[in-house]
Inverse folding.
């Protein structure tokens, strides 16, 4: 019975928004013992955008969403669903509903999805399930993070890596047996959770005798960089190969490799393992650093608006990070 409702997926619009303030590696060398040379050679990052205390996650996410809706030429009132992939909401109860209100997307149901730097890819696959089953036709997927709120600005091993921003795509139902989401694969491994975390730390508070609650705080990001690096260069090629297999495509059919922008060395190593030439690798982390769930849609938006990615191009996207989580989606743009 379900089959008569099945629709395909088209990704019809994208948008991005990053905060105005930009800090380069020289600026960071004024607050921690580091250098432009170390950061550039180890990561490829030159500068990053940082949200001011007046910025909010929901405001930059809403701006990115408006740009994506404009490109897709649909009104906020046409949206059925909004998924906000973020680990840094303005409110722990979620920020998607606030974005729904700011957009005036009165018909849309909205919720947050947490899968750290894999959030955008996980969100794309989640959105696809609602479209394929015929439940929703127009979905807005946003990847947004302001990790600057959660970085220890005295820890040089993490603070140089991250930046803030938001990116969004519009995903729409496609009739006639066409489907531009060609394949995907998602994975998690919680046994390695401790390699990258932004953990809650309980501070017991006794309410009445024998009953205590944990009235704690979140600690800044901690990361075992070498372990996360090893994980990424091994697992990301595997998951892309699996998604390509599901798409029934060989790697030479990939027009663009669009990875979570964590480190240029990871991008290079993954491309080299997959034998994808540098010319097909999308990279913007020199200017933005690692923007977590936002990095893939921001890079996608730039490449589309620069005319690099063209309608019909096949993109292999992969997110990876805390959880640990990782995943890949193979899709055609436009
Ligand atoms: O989105 C989440 C995904 N996260 C990632 O993808 C991160 C993956 N990991 C990485 O990208 C790399 O491991 C880093 C860029 C984080 C670090 O590069 P590395 O080549 O693994 O460096 P390392 O941690 O082995 O550190 C080498 C040295 C150490 O000094 P000693 O012990 O050799 O004297 C560090 O203390 O570099 C030192 N160091 C720094 N020096 C200058 C660490 N951070 C800095 C810094 N400036 N910012």
């Amino acid at each position: 019975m379900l089959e008569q409702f099945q629709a395909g997926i088209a990704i019809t619009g994208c948008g991005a928004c990053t905060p105005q303030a930009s800090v380069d590696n020289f600026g960071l060398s004024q607050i921690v013992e580091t250098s432009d040379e170390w950061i550039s050679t180890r990561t490829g990052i030159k500068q990053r955008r940082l949200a001011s205390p007046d910025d909010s996650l929901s405001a930059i996410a809403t701006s990115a969403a408006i740009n994506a809706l404009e490109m897709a030429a649909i009104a906020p009132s046409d949206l059925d669903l909004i998924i906000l992939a973020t680990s840094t909401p303005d409110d722990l109860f979620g920020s998607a509903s606030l974005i729904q209100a700011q957009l005036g997307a009165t018909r849309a149901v909205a919720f947050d999805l947490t899968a750290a730097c894999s959030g955008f890819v996980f969100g794309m696959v989640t959105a696809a399930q609602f479209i394929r089953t015929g439940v929703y036709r127009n979905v807005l997927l946003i990847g947004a993070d302001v990790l600057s709120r959660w970085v220890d600005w005295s820890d040089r091993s993490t603070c140089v890596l991250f930046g803030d921003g938001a990116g969004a795509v519009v995903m729409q139902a496609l009739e006639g047996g066409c489907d531009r989401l060609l394949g995907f694969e998602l994975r998690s491994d919680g046994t390695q959770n401790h390699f990258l975390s932004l953990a809650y730390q309980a501070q017991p508070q006794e309410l009445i005798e024998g009953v205590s609650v944990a009235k704690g705080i979140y600690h800044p990001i901690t990361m075992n960089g070498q372990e996360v690096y090893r994980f990424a260069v091994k697992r990301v090629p595997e998951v892309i190969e699996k998604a390509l297999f599901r798409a029934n495509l060989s790697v030479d059919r990939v027009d663009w490799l669009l990875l979570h922008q964590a480190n240029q060395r990871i991008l290079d190593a993954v491309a080299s393992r997959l034998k994808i030439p540098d010319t097909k690798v999308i990279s913007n982390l020199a200017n933005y650093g690692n923007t977590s769930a936002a990095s893939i849609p921001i890079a996608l938006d730039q490449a589309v608006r620069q005319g690099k990615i063209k309608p019909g191009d096949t993109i292999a996207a992969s997110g990876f990070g805390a959880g640990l989580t990782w995943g890949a989606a193979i899709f055609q743009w436009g």
Residues 34, 38-39, 42-43, 117, 156-157, 160, 196, 225-226, 228-229, 232, 262-263, 266, 290, 321 surround oxa(dethia)-CoA (CB under 6 Å). The mean pLDDT is 96.
